[in-house]
Amino acid sequence: MSRNLADFKFKCNRCGFCCSYLGLIVNLTPRDVQLLARTLKASARDLLKVVGFYQVKAFDESKRALIEERMVLPPLKTNKGFAYIGLLKHEDGRCVFLQGKKCVMYRARPRICQSFPFSFQEKGAGATISIGSFATTNCPGIGEGKPVNVAKVKLQGKSTMRDISQYKRFAKWWNGRDSKDPRHWTPLILLKSMLAFEP
Ligand code: SF4
Ligand code: SF4
User: Fold this and answer.
1) Do residues 28 and 110 touch, judged by C-beta distance below 8 A?
2) Domain segments of the chain: what residues?
3) Best of 13, 95, 101 to mutate for ligand 1, by most ligand atoms within 8 A of CB?
4) 0.85 cut: is pTM over it?
């Protein structure tokens, strides 16, 4: 992808499809959670109104270390099982921050929204850039408008990699805590820990 990036055209027409798709989780990193809290002036408890926990049905805990290493954003342990943390959605799939076709959290939207339709994956000291299959199939902005600003996309990639690395450090620490007390694994404690986690 990076070889042809200079030819890649994209212009978001604000159709809102990617913000309304039930099957897409808008994953959050500690940086996203901290930015949301600052923007909304929200406590961890307040954030529970906009942050959701998407349970992973079958999670083999004996393979946790491998999963944490291999998955871009591995699930986190909660008192109800392992879960992905993401923005809440309405029943029809609309993001909690979508009003009509407008994102009311645009300036503080999570990194995954900022970098759409691009996906980044670690490669040596840098990152590979690709377009995910959801975007290729469903986003009408692909191929529209002017060629993308390559420098800007690469910068986005760097920021994304930094956030992913922060998330992975968090997941390793959080999931590795040695406690059998369910009160230590609640969504509230998880959010408090994310808010306090170092950049
Ligand atoms: S699906 Fe594509 S064009 Fe529509 S809002 Fe999302 S990024 Fe923009
Ligand atoms: S935060 Fe904004 S850009 Fe991201 S999914 Fe929600 S409405 Fe869309």
Assistant:
1) yes
2) 2-196
3) 13
4) yes
